[in-house]
Structures are given as C-alpha cells and as structure tokens.
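Q: Give me a backbone?
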Amino acid sequence: MKLTGKLVAESPLYRGNARKTLFTRDGDGKQRLVSLAGEISGTAQSLMDAFIGASRDGRNTGLLNQAWLNLYDDPMPADLIRQVDCQLQSSAYPRNRFFDLRMGLKLDEDRWSSEANANYKMETIFRNAVFDFVMDVNDSVLARGDNRTRLHHLLQELQAGRFWFGAGKSKGLGRVRLELDTPLSAVSAGSTQASAPPKLDPRANHLRIALQFDAANPVLVGWNWGKVDPAMPSFAAVEGRVLLEAMRDLPVYVRTPLEMVLGGPILSPEDWKAKFARYFPRTAAIWLQKQSVRTVEVWTLSVAALERLGKGKFGLSDKLIDAARPLCGQPFASEDAALSAFSEAMKKSNMAGRVVKVMERQSQQSRDLNPQAWAELAADLGLDPALEEQMAAQIGDEAGLTALIGTALAGVLPRLNLQVDQQIALLRSDAWVDVEIASREEHLRIKTMLLDGRINEQQWGDRRQTPNGVSAAAWQTFVDEHQRVRYPHMIHPRNLGKSIANDQNFINFLKIHRDRARQELAQPNNIDYRAGGPFNRSVSRKYGKSYDTVFMRMLTWSPSEQEAGAWEIYVPGSTLKGAFRKRASQILKTLWGENRRTDALLDRFFGVQGRRGMVFFSDAYLRDPHDPDRAWSSMDGVRMDPRTGQPEESAKQDFLYAYGKQLVFRLRLDIQNVEQGDLEALSVLAHLLQDFQRGDIPIGGEKSSGFGWVCGEIDEIEWLSATPTGMTQTLFGAQELVRNGVWHRMVLKGEGAADALQFMEPLLTGPVNPAKPPRTTTGFISHRSFGGHCGTLAFEVETLTPTHIRESGEPSFKVTRSDQPVNGWDFFSMAPPSAEMRPVERQYALPSRSIKGMVRHLYAIASDSGATSATLGNLNPVDSLFGWVGAGTNQSIMGRLSFSFAPFDAPELAWYSVPFPYSGWLFEGGQWRQISGRRVPQMRIADTWRLFPHTPVAPMAQRTQEFQPDSAQASYFRAILPGSKARFTLRFWNLEDDELRRLLWCTALGADLAHKIGHHRYLGFGSLRMRRLPESFLIDWSKRYSGRPADEWRLPVNVPASGDAKLIAHYAELQRALNANAL
C-alpha cells in the first residue's frame, strides 16, 4: 500500500549538522534540493532525524519508530514501512533555493548579556512550506495482529500536528502536520479490530498548554540584522540588482527588464540613480507599448487588382475604376465595411460586390492604447489615471511616451531614490557576514588545493606547514577542526566535492540573505525620521536610516510570494525558552542553592547538550497581523552629556516596538509522556506560568527600560492520556475526560485552564532569604540568583511646571513660514512614528528611558561615580547598578533595575513657543532677567555633573492657544501642564543596603526637592515630583513560592530614604540644586 499526501511545516524546520548552518542538501548539494530523510543511513545521518530505521549502534532510531514505541510500548515491526519519501514541493522553493536564516544568542547567566562566540545560525525551511509525502507500507506485515489499527492511530498523531522533525524541537522548530490524500480508513480496512482502538502504553500521555500575551506592556524582541559597524567605509561595492529588489512596489514586469540593464555592479550611487531615472520611464513606456499592440484582420484592395477588373469582356468602366481608386490600400475591418464603402463610392452595390471579391485578407498590427494595461501601470506606479488621453496620443512614439511617463514619475522617483540611499547606508551593517565569508573562502581554497593534489600527506595535519596562498591562521584553524580526519579520507573526491559545494552554498546563502534583510530594513516603515535640509529644519524619512532595533521577523512560505517568501513578525521559541529558563534558574538557585538537585531539574526541564528537554516551546505568532505602520510604536534614546546636559547625537538610538492590546501573540508548550518523576519539574512549570501571568518573566530586549514584562494568559490546556487514572488524577484530580480515538481527552479553556494547575506544590520548606546579593569571582554582582533586596517600587509623578518630552518620529504638526518648514511637536505618546498613523486619542507618557536617565544622573552624583569604569571587576557604583557596556569581548552587564513607562491619566496640555537662541536670560534673585551678552550659566557639581535649577517658566516662553507659528526662529511644542499625574514602577533585584537606600533617596527625594526632565529645562520646564506609593514592596523569598497569598510575601518598604551625608555624596550641593521652593 502506498499512502500519499502532504506534510505541512507548522513551524520552520532545520535538519543538519549541529556545527553547520545550512539545511542538509540532497545529493552533491549543487542543485540545492532538500527533503526530509526517509531512513537513517550513513555516518552523518545516524546523528540526524529520519522517519524510519536505526543507526548501527542503535542510539538513533526513526521518528516513526520512536512514536510507535511511545504509544504502544512495543517496537514497530522492522519491515512494516518499506520506505518514506518526503520531498519539498517545487512551489515551496525560493528562486535561489535558499531559505530563512534563524539566529540566536546565548546570554551569560552572571551578566545577563550576550556571550561572545556562543550564538547559533540555522538555515530553516519556511514555515507553511509543503512537502510531498509518500509512504510505502508492506501489506503482508500490515495484516498481522493489530498493526492496521496501530498504524492508523500513529498517522492520526501526525495529522493532529503532534509530530516534530529535525533539530531545535524544544525551541520552536520542527512541528509538522500530515494531510493524507488517502483516507485513513483505508489503512485499517479489513482489520478484525477496526472498531476498537489499539491498547496504548498506560504511561503514554501528552500535555499541551496554549498561552497568549498582548503588547499592552511594550515588547521589543530585536532582529539580529542591521547592526552598523562604524569602522566600515561609507560606500562599498553593491550590485544594482540588490537595489532594485529592495523596491518592492515596483511591478515585476518593470523590475525584471531593469535588472537586465542595471543589475550589475555600480560605480557610485549617484551615477546609478541617474541611469535609473533614464531607464525607468523608458522601460515602463516599452511595456505599455507592447501591451497596446494587437493583431487585427483587414481587407485591402490593391491597385493591380482594381486594374484587372477593368479588363476583359465584362470589365468595369473607367468611371467606376476611377471612383474606386481612392480606396485602394485602405484597410477595412470587415467585408461588410468594405462593401459599404465601395457601394457609396461607386453608387452601384452590384459592382461594389465584384470589387470586394478581389480584395486581399491580411493580418496587421494595430497600436492603440490598451486601457486595461494603462490602468494597471498607473495603479502599480502611483500615476494619475487621468493621463490616459495623453498616453493614447503618444502610444506610437516611444520617445514621446517615455518623456510623458518620466514627467508623471517625477513624484515617485524621490521615494525610490531614498530607498537606494538607505540600502547604501546599510552596506556598513552586519560586518560579521564578511568575516564569516572570508573565513569560509579560505577553507574553500584549502579544500580545492587538497582536491587538486597541491597539499600532500606530509603537510596534512602539520599546523606549521602553511600552504602557499593560505594564511597561517586559516590553515591552523582548518587543521584543528579536521585533526581526526585521516588524509586518504580527507581527499576522497566525492566527500571533498560535496564539502566544497556546501562551502559555496554557505557563502552564497549568507550574501543573499543579508541582501534580503537589508531590503527589508530599507522599507519605508522601517526607516526613522531625522532632521535635514536647510538649517536642519525639515524632519523626514528622507534623511533617516533604519531603526537601530526593529522587531524580530522571519521568512515564511506564502502562495502570493512563492519565489521569495514573505516576512512575518514573531517571537522565537528560543527566546521564550531562554526567558523561562532564566527565571527558573534564578528561582531554584535562590531557593535550593547551586547543587545537583537544581542542575538535574533544569536539565530535565530545558535539556542539556545531547539530551532534549521535556518541554517543547513553540514560536509566538501574531493572532491577527496588522498594518505595520499602525501596529508599531517608536521611541528615541539619546545619551546626555552629564557635564553639559546636552544630548550626544552620535549616541542616539531608536526603536520600533510592539505596543497595544490589539497585538496578541500566541504560543504553545508541549510535553510528552509525563512521568511520576516529573512532578517536581511540573510544579516548577506551574510556578513559572503563574509568574508569566503576573508579568515577572521578561521577553526580549531592553528589559531595563521596561520592555518585555508582559502579562501572559493560559488560553487552553489539552491533556491526552492512555488511561483516565494514574497521572491524570495526579495532575488534574477529578476532571472529566472524554474518549477520543485512542486517547482519553480533557480540554480546559479560559479561567478553567488557569485554575487547573493543581500540580503546583510549594518549592520551599525551610527559611531562605539571602542577605547579600550573589557575586562572581571577578567581583561584580551577578544575575544568576536572587539575594539582597528585591522588589518593586511604585511611584506617582506630578508635574510642577509645564513639561515637554518630544514625540518620537515625525512632528504631528507642520507649516511653512517664509519658505521654511516649521514643526509643531506633540508630547511623547505610545504611538507610531508616522503622524498620519497616530490615533486622535493618544496615550501620553513619560518614556522609560527618560525616567531611567534622569534617575541615573542623580544616582551618579549621589554615589560619586566620576571615575570611568574600566572593566567588569572595577565598575563604579552607577554602572554597577544601572548597567554598563565596555570595550572588548564579554565586557557588558545588564542593570539590576527596570523602569516602566509612566502613562498620564487625562493630562492637560497647552502649546508653547520658545524663540532661539535664548542666551542672556538669567534667573537671579527670584526672578528672570535678560542681560545682553551674558551666557547661559551652568550649575555643576564637582565640575562633572550639570543640574538645572527649578524656576518658574521664563517670560520668553509664550503659551499660545493653538499651533500658530509666526516665525521660523522658534520651537513650538505641546507641554503637559502642572498638576498632571502619571504612574510608573521600578523593579529592582540583588541590591545591597546602601544601593537601595540611595536609590530611594534619588527617586522620592526630600520634601522641598524635585526632579527635572525633558526639553527646555533651563527655562523652567520639566520640574516634577515623585511620590512613592504604598503598593511598593520587597520580596520575601522564603514565602514567595510557598503557595501563600501575595500579601504574605510582599513586605513593606520600610527602608529609610532620608538624606544622609555619609550615604549621599555631595549631599549639601544636591539639596541646593534640587530645591524647588522657587516654584
């Protein structure tokens, strides 16, 4: 029996050597064909997945063999399935036959920052790709015993999507679903036991937990691409094809001919843009002319034929001949049209009939504007459809039509040229690709020399005998990597040929995927807004670049994007698994200590090298994809010079992040064959899920700036068990199960699912509350476990003077005065960067990075952190607490604080105008005065840190009713008025006593003191006061996971925050500088 169907990739797939990047290719690799291995064979395949078979040592068996054994506790008959063939459908291949590149980072558990040379890269088959599936079943073996029903229900597992193939199963890869052409009933037909399902292994079960979270709290899982290396040259070689492919709104019928002309290497960007401006309208004109050419049949009368009609016995008279002569050579669309015309000319229809009979029937080409083709071109290029009559008039003249289309494209070209500039700017990004390619090219050179016999056996294995044309470093690395390979095996032509093909594929894959990533980053919705033009007054994407960080995305197969793949936003399963593992590790090392018990549970739960974890984390996909311009918000981060209080533009960063309840991500956890010995691990899982619901497991990057602390929900729990007793009762008590095929099934949704975690047991029996934070041998405070002071501070912020923090992206208001653009800036809101995409009702907020920067600046003064941190072992107090990035490998550490955004509750806003420059204005003796020629004074502490005094708003700053600028020599902005209130939280962990006390003072301050934030601080804007709220708490770890109510493990913050000259450096100076009595 042959079973045929389709195997659908529900998630991306990777099958290959763990040390390699490419998906394993069929044959010699030159055709770049891929399939899922049917049977385990060969040296390398014995380490990789296949559907059936077994390795010689028996340690690796086919996935169907494993599934059979798990279900029935009985080996699958060796010859039941003769063969499985699973080839990727031709329609699922991209044009270049390369797929997506998935990359991941490993975070150091002490620094909670990326670890150098510990990342992974995998070429993954597109999600939603389809394989042709053929299974050859041995009918004679199928007929034995209950093999029919057993195979029937095994295939049902594949149909239900409870089957994983390839690497990375526990971090979002490999889940597939079978769609059979043959009904499953055909498999079990003829079985005497068809009506009764086969008996399962009583230990067989499957737990699926469906989770979801929204972006009500901002989320930023950063994409790995687009990181710029400042050391790269400003322009490097690029092919025009890459620039054209980035113009995704160019229709294929225009792009393809342009690639033939402009697709080669370019000399300079400006030269290429000039050529593009010439060829673009001409290409469009030629296409429109081709679409307007049609072949028609016509009837014509030649002069010779007419002359013959005048000869002979019954020839036409000379009068009739002369009457018909003017119509000679004229084409007629039909015989009837010709007859009508000759009848009228000759005044005799019977004679006209004789003329028509000698007319010639011919095919001619007609060139009249094709209205449908013009409508398509106009829609694709954004041209004015009303130009149809002018196009029709020029359709026969290529030069005239090209000029007309060129004029119409004048408004389109700047946007396309902007994409060219952005692609060129991106050439400086992702320099690691060039490093990898250079390394692989050296290895490729060595392999080619081996194949050609230019490296002999004496040289092989000797690190000192570097071949000519190869660097010593490359030779030594190559020899070290192949030290176990003997020379005769190394030079085997077939093995070496495939290895060379793999290296060539790897190089091409990295180049092609980098080009695709750059094209995606150069799309308008991924470009930020920057100032440019005369006097830097125009703010536009024209002057922008790709955002420093955009949300993670991958290529997926889509029927509408068959030749390339479509980009899709997602959160990798590896990110989710890493977040859960980090939290579990911190909890267990805090409660149990660093011992075998902790390591054993973490290894069982999450896996260890050579052993897969018990929990499979899926990727998280958006429930409903949205328009990217509306779904993503932006935020700028500019480092301030502590001495001048001015922004350092070179240190500006911007982010495009997910925000809003409408953005819902869905994921699932799968656990197969839960055993009694897993109860402790499941209890940890239950606590982790509870933490996820509370928002205590951050996802993605920028965690210390409030991103990623999402509140998850348990959407559904599905439990499948061989029996309704045993583990079912242990985990779910008396929950009712329903028979479903071979399984006893239970499904809980919503609140029922959230309340079903009855297997959660306390994780701690004795008192544990580490008095001091954990430290590394290097000397810095570690993130590996919890200790010292941990908890959350809640604050209410009240504005004391008008406060303005500029919105991110494009200004919401623009006018032109004296031929110069004038911008009106709204207050920062959680909104898209494009003004037209922002909602009318906006969520105004203090950005988390602004609050963090404000508090950090004060903490630096209060801790006297003037000395520059040199290494991780010698951090100054502010870098130790807030985080630090140094020069060199593994010289970075995440801070131990996380500031959330501070949304305002119904704030009152007003417009202000501030002329510039404003030198000469001083606040002295309790009032503002203008003294010509006087510079703006700067208040500094220890000549290192500038602070702005609290003053009323200067008279030069005028409040206006609306945005009504009267001059370009001023800034116009909306400020939040005094008395408006906002709230935010500050999470902290592993703080020492002095750190917590100093932090409390730097946030709440004293009764007469206040903070400053935002723009125009010198002129009196931005004064605010922060009040610590009663819901602030410290965590008692001895009770945190004991099953007790939250109010028992949340302790009040009774740490004194009063000023102390011994604790607060520069205390007297800070008291004077922060005094707000002048308000």
The first helix runs from residue 63 to 72. The chain has a mean pLDDT of 90. Residues 2-199 form one domain. The first strand starts at residue 2 and ends at 9.
